[in-house]
Structures are given as structure tokens and as C-alpha cells.
Design goal:
Blueprint (H helix, E strand, L loop, with lengths): L1 E4 H6 L8 E5 L6 E3 L13 E6 L4 E5 L13
Parallel strand pairs: 1-3
Antiparallel strand pairs: 1-2, 2-4, 4-5
Length: about 70
């Protein structure tokens, strides 16, 4: 499953390019939220796939997840 960063919905195209847009999430439908929904379970806890506001997708290692940008402020 994937979810959308709830903060992107408010900011839209004005969001920073390195903000999380979509991310692998716990099972659900039409989810919107933040790090509380993110999961690494699909990759044996090693990380997850994240799409950023600028359109690029990256596999983020579990050790780097806390560095993701979820809001406009750092």
C-alpha cells in the first residue's frame, strides 16, 4: 500500500521538491498521513520506497527515514 503525505494536500505544487509526496504504508485504502503510516515491512525492515514532490523515487534505508522532510520546516 501507498499513502500521500497529508501536508502536500495543503501546500500542493508550492511544496518543496524534497518533501515526501507518496510513500509505502501500512495496509489501507486512500490513506493520507505522515511517518506514523510509513512501513519498512515490505523490504525486511531495510527501508522503503518514497516518491518526492519533484517526481523522483528513491529507496530510503531504514537508518535514513528520520531525515525525510514531511513539512515545509526542517
Amino acid at each position: 500500500s501507498y499513502a500521500m503525505n497529508k501536508n502536500i494536500k495543503k501546500l500542493g505544487a508550492n511544496s518543496l521538491p524534497d518533501m515526501v509526496l507518496l510513500f509505502e504504508s501500512k495496509p489501507g485504502w486512500n490513506q493520507s498521513g505522515g511517518p506514523e503510516l510509513l512501513t519498512t515491512e515490505n523490504h525486511q525492515g531495510e527501508g522503503c520506497n518514497v516518491m518526492f514532490n519533484d517526481g523522483h523515487v528513491a529507496f530510503i534505508q531504514a537508518k535514513d527515514i528520520n531525515n525525510l522532510r514531511w513539512t515545509e520546516s526542517p
